[in-house]
């Protein structure tokens, strides 16, 4: 192979022992999107958890940002094979948001402005594993990265961390979201390289 | 980054035996019909996503795995192909 053939991809590759299989390390923050980037004014932002019984728990921006927040430092892994280590966020734990939610359902469909959806087991959102994040690196979250607020589930591939999230819907059965219906894995554990259906 | 439907040409050429950018789609959401080349396409994503230029709904997506190409046409009411 010629020395220039690795080019674009090869220059970004670092070796790092703490990466899931098949991932390479990146130091920038790639922007992936499947549609136009919505610009959501804070006075029109809301987030709703809807139970299987139809009960709604809704927060506007003022109520949401008045909740206890946490500083979060985690590695993130995109299914397109980049990983970024030690990313720092500020957000509200899903444990806090689910504190008064009564549900017997085991699965969640996350919904975003623009129609994006992704499915997650409820147990993956609780016990300090997931947040609604609204700051990255000490700054308000850019719209390109999902601002004003996005789901953050760092232990799953990053397509599960829905940008522009505006609601969680409880479900008794696991149903596929947008990328899951298009061929990606229902769960998406990067350490087991669950990229596609059948992995 | 948004492109137009001509960006689908290479991927769809693997799936269909005819030139697809001049095929006509009908959007399942709003019934808008036009050439595939007029779709609004996003490629910097886990797959390729093509949206209706009229209503913005997803008309088709294409995911490439190591062994398969998965073409999802949930948002396509009809494809008219040249012969």
TrEMBL record, chain A:
Domain Oxidoreductase molybdopterin-binding: from-to ranges: 35-179
Disordered, as annotated region: 1-22
One Pfam family named in its UniProt record: Oxidored_molyb
Alphabetized InterPro entries for the sequence: OxRdtase_Mopterin-bd_dom (IPR000572), OxRdtase_Mopterin-bd_sf (IPR036374)
Cleavable signal peptide: none
Protein name (database record): Molybdopterin-binding protein
UniProtKB/TrEMBL annotation, chain B:
Pfam families: DUF6510
Protein name per the record: Uncharacterized protein
Organism: Actinoplanes cyaneus
């Amino acid at each position: 192979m010629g020395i220039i053939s690795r080019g674009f991809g090869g220059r970004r590759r670092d070796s790092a022992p703490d990466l899931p299989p098949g991932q390479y390390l990146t130091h920038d923050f790639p922007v992936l999107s499947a549609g136009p980037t919505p610009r959501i004014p804070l006075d029109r932002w809301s987030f709703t958890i809807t139970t299987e019984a139809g009960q709604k728990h809704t927060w506007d921006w003022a109520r949401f940002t008045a909740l206890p927040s946490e500083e979060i430092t985690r590695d993130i892994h995109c299914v397109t094979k980049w990983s970024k280590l030690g990313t720092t966020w500020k957000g509200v734990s899903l444990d806090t948001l689910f504190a008064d939610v009564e549900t017997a359902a085991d699965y969640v469909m996350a919904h975003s402005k623009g129609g994006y959806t992704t499915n997650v087991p409820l147990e993956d959102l609780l016990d300090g594993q997931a947040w609604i994040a609204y700051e990255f690196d000490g700054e308000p979250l850019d719209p390109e990265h999902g601002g004003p607020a996005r789901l953050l589930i760092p232990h799953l591939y990053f397509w599960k961390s829905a940008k522009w999230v505006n609601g969680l819907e409880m479900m008794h059965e696991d149903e596929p979201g947008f990328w899951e219906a298009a061929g990606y894995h229902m769960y998406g554990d990067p350490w087991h390289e669950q990229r596609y259906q059948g992995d | 980054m948004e492109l137009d439907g001509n960006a689908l040409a290479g991927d769809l050429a693997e799936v269909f035996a005819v030139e697809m950018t001049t095929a006509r789609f009908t959007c399942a959401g709003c019934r808008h019909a036009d050439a595939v080349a007029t779709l609004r396409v996003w490629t910097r994503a886990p797959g390729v996503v093509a949206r209706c230029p009229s209503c913005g709904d997803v008309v088709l997506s294409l995911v490439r795995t190591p062994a398969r190409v998965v073409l999802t046409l949930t948002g396509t009411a009809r494809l008219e192909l040249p012969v």
